[in-house]
Fold:
Amino acid sequence: MEKQFNINELLSSNHLTTLFKEGAVIQESANSFILLLGDKKPYLSDLESLSQNQILVYQANYWDYVDKSKDNASKNAQNLYYYEQAFKIDRDHLCLLTDRLITQLGLDGRVNRLRIRQDHFADFQNQFDWSQMQFSSGRLRKTVPFTKFEYDVQNFSFWLALDFALRHQDVGFVYGFWTEHQGYLGKTPELLASFENQTLTTMALAGTWSNQIHYQSLNDVDAKTREEHAIVVQDIKSRLGQAESTETYIYNVKYLNHLRTDIFTKIENEKKFIDLVGRLHPTAALGIYPRDLGAAEEFSNLELQNSREIFGAPVGFLTKNYARIYVGIRMFKWNAINSSVSIMCGCGVTAQSHLESEWAELITKKNAVCKMFNLNEEVGSYT
Structure:
């Protein structure tokens, strides 16, 4: 339940201890965030009973949608949670919290350093080769292979990474979930769906290139990238039924560029919104196309795909008459127990794709995540 905001209360030692042990943060707008503290519990009530001052978190695993044991309504209901305390907080006050916690933990002046353990190129190549076989047979037109860049770390601090992302404001939405020993942190450019004024808004965001490449217009963008984006637009519109869209345009997110098309449709209430979130995920930007559950299940069992967890899954918050659900990308997972950090990256693949180019795109995305959170890669390994 949302509480009256009081920064002095949040800065107290009791709240800082609770914040350190378990919580979540989800960005709402340029300078507004949802901060959640305490135990996370499933929300089991009907959405019609949601009160004006309640804030729910939507968090799913990517491959939930291929679970044949549950219908879509059941899957979506299981993805809603609430925390003991929920606050709306602005960027400056959130930075005060992270700064106080960093000082309290004795982390001032420290930098997070990573040393590569494994990049899983062979597993990525296996996904790529499987995809090309599906394209050749006519079964599929697009897939999204991914990899995990796994690192060894010493004295890694999630709070340093979060604080850096908060203090370097640029395009993208910060989201994170943590306990004392592990968690996820990301900064996604992609909105899966928002709900306001009985309108669902979504976007097709597909096709990626480095900001070192300066296309002047859509006609300059290569054919493979434009084809990939057109597939995503077609896919989203087919799932929503009646929907309007903007013209496609180039979208810059500081370290990367994408093609983007905004899409809108009218809906009645929160329940319909959550149903459509389940219908949208995964769009062709993050999933196979056409949506073939048999092919999806087969793909999900490939090495790495079977361990992607929340990467590419919907993540966000829901209140009465208002919601924002993002696509969980540009993220890393940290684990203090085994001293590891994993940066997860995916890329859209079609029949025109080349393995080397796609791997280069993953490197570009990985580097962008490092820059977003001030994660410093070092040569060598820890002994």
Residues 355-373 form the longest helix (19 residues).
